[in-house]
Design a protein that fits this description.
about 10% strand; DUF3419; 23 strands; seven-stranded mixed β-sheet
């Protein structure tokens, strides 16, 4: 192997040479190969021989060789180390003698080879550079230099067993526009192969020459990197240094700087200048805010104080975003002209630093002004956390003199300009131009800029990734809000407005998919490109990090797409009048047989695809009211009723709805069906669609039809479709490959990740899936059971239709389509059909019965699964008020598992809604052919139930703390954690005034607990037993819980009192102030007590045995050491059939022993809050559980998501 030649430099007698040497493996074999260096030595050297001997020995001896080589007396030995180049401080004469002149190089045909940049437009980094030459006079054999563009004094590529050093501009040369070859890192190693240089030279285009420096630079830091990071820097005390300027166009002065982590480039600003700019920025922002505060309300009219406060919150943001965007546009122009590499390599300028200081001043000014003038408008994530993060990041960039990296992100403030202006003008909705601009600059541009900066600064790269994650989160939040803006709390609570500009679902999904693919492809491109042109990636695990970053951010983008579909498909389908369900996926046989539907019943049900309505109609009930919010679903039922009214033959009816024959529709629609449609909306729907839905196969129509189509694509190749048509059972396939495939498919589909994203295709909203999210085992087992058993039953037309794409003869079709039962429908006249069936567009809570007696048969399918507690309670109250209490039976299905699926009593599977739990209910055990619903329920209406109490009235006021208040509460919690003896009274003594604001978010769902979990509808019945107290609150705190139901407490009988109990007198003092303010002083008793003191002690305070209708304990049981005694005392206070209601933290029921739950338990235990799953089990064992639910939420200012539960149990006599 031929070694590379070294650059030979002689030391002047008046100059001290700075050396740093490290010998690598195989160096000894190369020490004697430099003939030119040996000739310069003029004589054999004993010391050189000793150096060579040590170099080939162990590492410790090589170190000795290094020390030996640094001795001044062995200059000839130093030059004999072929290929190891060192940095030297030479005087001008010596350097000029050693370096070839331009004329000499040209005359002696100096060979110069360069590697062309990988991308000239963006001025990519040089691979390496080889310059070799020969001179007759000084005997220089050759020189090999491997160059790579770097910045900030950090050597990005280190050559093993070789030396690396930097050629940088001096600090004095500020404002100079660098050329392509400036600021290089040179690598010379004895291990560099000659053939590698030759291959590199073959790719070089153009020529070049070695140009000597034209100016002398004063003493400078000098150091060399040999293999690893330098441990020491050597300050040269010698004379000026000259270096080779690798530029064929112009000569620029450089110095050898080495492996310094930081260096100054560009004009310098001292601390005084920084403070001046910062102060002026603060003053400018203050003046601008003062002007905007006065002018803003006059330009855009503000009618309320809240509008004025919200407007003031965006004044500084608008000013900052305009200034930053202007500089960002200028920076983008330079990037387009020169490329990111040029801009990131140039070092910071005065302008860069001043803009960074201005933005830092904005962050501080916005927080300070907001704390004084609009504290309610500054939230934690986009206010305190955002500004603090940017403030800290800017301080680091200012310290490192890297503010030109910050300039790359200023263009991303353009969407903020639109946002701030819209908020100043009180615009409630941001339209799609904002989203497009946001995606271009804050997603695509940010990805490219972030990966471009990776080559220059790992810190800036990491900062960019964190910011990119926040940008994705904001995009997803805005995307969800844009879908939800058409409805406040669900489609049944508010009506969609035609004036609300919303894209249709298909367009929205197409846009979202394009954005996801573009973002993922862009990120993948810059990742691969970065891997290919950054050699240092090969020497680290950074390539793994880059790949993981791409996977993570692509996954986050896909989640936005999935969320758009799962959350928006029902709402947008309703608004666009699109069919969601092509068949009703609820087995009508269950409620028909369980509730014993008769001809005397007045039925209220949901239309869906009309299958259940027509099935009920075969029993000839007195009346059926079919309700639906979706006009398209009502149009489907309307057309089916028109077919019956037109006396369409059974074979045509079956061909149309069971086989999707478009010819039947064309033949009958215009002549006979259209005139018989009851609703104008139905005519408009079918006039616009005609036979299109049937040409595409009605079984694959609608949102759920997409799932049917995918199901069919899998079923047909596997032979499932033909097996179902041949009436085979799963047992008949057990010996074949199909059974094994079905078993494997059942296992795959049963995985939570799969059904989480597949279920929405069947029209299942995320709220329903959330009911089984914490019980994945139950749902996975049910899916396997469906695929292996239920779908193979001979009368299961649900799966038969979806697997084969059509219905077959009964029982492979709905009952009303069959030849046996369809004639019963034909026997009804048109007038009778209209009398028996009413179509109602709206909510089932708004539907009016045809008679004054009310509904007697209510089938709500699964519609209540996705409703929030407030909406559900309101609709149930309205619906029950229109029912016949003596005869009415209510039936519903739910994805929440019931007690029948419990493996042990502590699983606590109950009805999914606290409002429904207040009704006398039971689980139905009938076999459901669909199987998707894990529980089916029926309930009745008590004669003495207070239906208005299902929605108790109270205050909706919320409390918020300032950041300082929260900090003081956190300090009190920290002190409590450091105490060995947990003093609860002392803990709350100093934070009584700040108690509510901090715990509003720390202790969630207290409003749901007091309003709906507490069975207020049963309280009138319990009060007949004449207890003293209607409600006893244990651990009442500041009486915040009572505020949620204050108005309802006033409606109770005068004799029913409320007891508020707490251990802390300071909190009870705050509670008294609140009670007086609410006007409940004449009804409330404030009792300071320890609930574990015993019955005798409590009786002295007025808390006697069996003297309360309801006992509620809110986030208190986990803070009582003797919690069993506390539970027993609370049960002792209740009358028979009284309700014990709890809300508190606990460990997740199926993961109590996991590491995460243990961390939560230990962390909360520091503040005297002790998570214990045994508490839930003990309470459930002592009562008859009626409602139990678990959920989780984030603890403020922490990454923790602990589990909380709501429980309502009945004390058994």
């Amino acid at each position: 192997m031929r070694p590379t030649s070294s650059v030979s430099q002689a030391c002047n007698s008046t100059s001290e040479t700075c050396l740093r040497l490290r010998f690598g493996r195989g160096l000894a074999s190369r020490l004697c190969t430099s003939a030119a260096a040996s000739r310069r030595a003029r004589r054999p050297s004993i010391i050189s021989a000793r150096v060579r001997e040590l170099a080939s020995a162990a590492p410790c001896k090589r170190a000795a060789a290094s020390r030996l080589a640094r001795r001044p007396s062995i200059a000839s030995a130093r030059e004999s180390l072929g290929g190891s180049v060192v940095s030297a401080s030479l005087d001008d004469a010596s350097l000029r003698a050693r370096l070839p002149s331009r004329a000499c190089v040209r005359e002696n045909e100096v060979e110069s080879r360069r590697v062309v940049r990988s991308n000239i437009a963006n001025e990519r980094s040089l691979r390496f550079l080889r310059v070799s030459g020969e001179r007759r006079n000084d005997g220089v054999a050759s020189m090999a230099i491997f160059a790579r563009e770097t910045v900030f004094g950090r050597v990005q590529k280190r050559c093993k067993n070789g030396l690396a050093f930097r050629l940088v501009r001096p600090a004095q040369a500020s404002g100079w526009s660098r050329s392509a070859n400036d600021a290089t890192t040179a690598f010379v190693t004895p291990h560099t192969r000659r053939d590698r240089c030759d291959r590199a030279g073959s790719r070089i285009s153009g020529g070049g020459s070695i140009q000597p420096a034209t100016a002398l630079i004063g003493p400078h830091w000098c150091s060399l990197c040999s293999g690893d990071v330098c441990k020491r820097d050597i300050r040269s005390a010698c004379g000026p240094v000259r270096s080779v300027a690798l530029n064929s166009h112009e000569s620029k002065p450089y110095v050898f700087s080495g492996c310094r982590r930081h260096f100054e480039s560009g004009a310098a600003m001292d601390l005084q200048d920084d403070l001046t700019v910062f102060g002026l920025s603060i003053a400018l922002l203050a003046v601008a805010y003062a002007i905007g505060r006065v002018v803003g309300p006059k330009v855009t009219k503000c009618e309320t104080d809240e509008q004025r406060r919200k407007q003031r919150a965006w004044i500084l943001t608008l000013i900052s975003s305009v200034v930053c965007s202007a500089h960002g546009v200028f920076f983008l122009g330079r990037v387009i002209k020169h490329g990111f590499g040029h801009e990131f390599s140039r070092g910071e300028t005065v302008a860069d630093r001043r803009v960074a200081l201005f933005f830092l001043a904005y962050c501080i000014a916005d927080l300070a002004t907001g704390a004084l003038d609009y504290i309610d408008e500054i939230d934690y994530q986009s206010g305190w956390a955002h500004h603090s993060f940017y403030g800290i990041g800017l301080c680091v960039l200012l310290y490192r003199k890297h503010t030109h990296f910050f300039m790359a992100g200023l263009i991303e403030e353009l969407p903020t300009v639109l946002l701030a202006w819209a908020r100043l003008a009180h615009a409630k909705e941001l339209h799609w131009p904002f989203a497009l601009l946001y995606f271009i600059v804050r997603i695509l541009y940010h990805v490219v800029a972030t990966f471009e900066v990776l080559e220059h600064s790992l810190f800036a790269f990491g900062l960019g990734l964190v910011i990119f994650r926040q940008h994705l989160w904001w995009l997803g939040a805005w995307w969800r809000r844009s879908s939800a803006s058409a409805h406040a709390a669900g489609p049944q609570e508010t009506r969609f407005k035609k004036t609300n500009a919303q894209l249709n679902l298909h367009t929205k999904l197409l846009i979202c998919a394009a954005m996801v693919i573009t973002q993922s492809a862009t990120m993948l491109h810059v990742t691969i490109e970065g891997y290919g042109r950054r050699d240092w990636v090969h020497e680290t695990m950074t390539v793994v990090g880059l790949t993981c970053a791409w996977i993570y951010f692509s996954y986050e983008a896909v989640l936005i797409f999935a969320d758009t579909y799962t959350r928006g498909f029902i709402a947008l389908a309703i608004k666009e009048q699109k069919v969601i369900y092509n068949i009703s996926w609820e087995d009508p046989r269950v409620e028909r047989e369980e509730l014993k539907l008769s001809s005397d019943d007045v039925v209220l049900t949901i239309s869906s695809a009309g299958c259940n309505v027509l099935d009920y109609l075969l029993e000839k009930p007195k009346h059926i009211t079919a309700v639906d919010l979706n006009e398209a679903q009502l149009a489907v039922l309307d057309l089916k009723l028109a077919c019956v009214a037109a006396k369409m033959p059974q074979h045509d009816f079956f061909a149309l709805w069971g086989r999707s024959d478009p010819r039947v529709f064309t033949e009958h629609y215009r002549p006979s069906l259209r005139a018989r449609l009851r609703r104008d909306a139905s005519r408009r729907y079918w006039d616009s669609n005609l036979d299109e839905l049937f040409r595409d196969n009605w079984m694959f129509c609608g949102t759920s039809g997409l799932m049917a189509f995918l199901f069919m694509l899998i079923a047909r190749p596997l032979g499932i479709s033909s097996a179902l048509q041949r009436n085979l059972r799963f047992e008949d396939l057990k010996k074949g490959y199909l059974a094994r495939l079905i078993d494997f498919g059942a296992w795959v589909v049963g995985q939570p990740l799969v059904w989480t994203y597949a279920a929405p295709l069947g029209g299942i909203p995320p709220e329903q899936l959330a009911l089984v999210d914490r019980r994945p085992r139950v749902f996975s087992e049910r899916i396997r059971e469906i695929l292996a058993t239920r779908m193979w039953s001979r009368d299961n037309y649900f799966y038969h239709g979806y697997c084969t794409g059509q219905f077959d003869a009964f029982p492979k079709c709905p009952r009303y389509m069959s030849a046996e039962h369809y004639p019963k429908l034909l026997a009804m006249s048109d007038a009778e059909l209209k009398e028996r069936v009413t179509l109602f567009h709206g909510s089932w809570g708004d539907a009016e019965p045809p008679t004054s007696s009310g509904f007697t048969f209510v089938s709500l399918l699964d519609s209540m699964d996705w409703m929030p507690p407030t909406l559900l309670a309101t609709l149930v109250k309205d619906m029950l008020s229109r029912c016949d209490r003596a005869k009415c039976r209510v039936f519903w299905r739910s994805y929440a598992p019931g007690p029948m699926l419990q493996q042990k009593a502590t699983d606590l599977f109950t009805v999914h809604s606290p409002a429904l739990a207040q009704l006398p209910h039971r689980e139905v055990q009938s076999y459901d052919r669909v199987g998707w619903y894990l529980s089916q329920w029926t309930a009745t209406i008590p004669q003495d139930a207070d239906l208005d109490a299902l929605c108790p009235a109270g205050s909706s006021k919320t409390y918020e703390n300032s950041l300082m208040d929260d900090a003081l509460v956190c300090l009190a919690m920290a002190r409590q954690a450091l105490r060995k003896d947990k003093d609860v009274a002392a803990f709350y003594r100093n934070q009584a005034g700040r108690y509510d604001g901090f715990r509003e978010s720390l202790l969630p769902d207290r409003d749901t607990f007091l309003k709906y979990t507490v069975p207020w509808s049963r309280v009138p019945t319990l009060l007949k037993k004449q207890p003293t107290y209607a409600l006893v609150c244990v651990g009442c705190g500041t009486a915040r819980d009572v505020e949620f139901v204050a108005d309802h407490l006033k409606s109770l009988p005068r004799s029913a009192r409320v007891a508020l109990c707490d251990l802390s007198p300071e909190l009870l003092a705050q509670a008294k102030l609140r009670v007086d303010k609410l006007g409940l002083a004449d009804r409330v008793d404030l009792i300071q007590c320890d609930i574990t003191a015993g019955p005798a002690a409590l009786a002295k305070l007025g808390l006697r045995s069996k003297d309360s209708a309801v006992v509620a304990c809110s986030y208190c049981l986990t803070m009582i050491p003797a919690w069993k005694a506390a539970v027993d005392a609370m049960l002792d206070l209740l009358v028979d059939d009284g309700a014990l209601c709890l809300i508190d933290f606990t460990q997740r029921f199926d993961r109590a022993s996991t590491l995460v739950e243990r961390v939560y338990k230990a962390w909360f235990g520091l503040d005297g809050v002790y998570f214990n799953r045994d508490q839930v089990d003990y309470v459930a064992a002592r009562t008859a559980p009626e409602y139990y639910a678990e959920a989780r939420s984030r603890v403020p200012y922490t990454p923790w998501y602990p589990t909380r539960y709501l429980f309502a149990g009945r004390k058994e006599a």
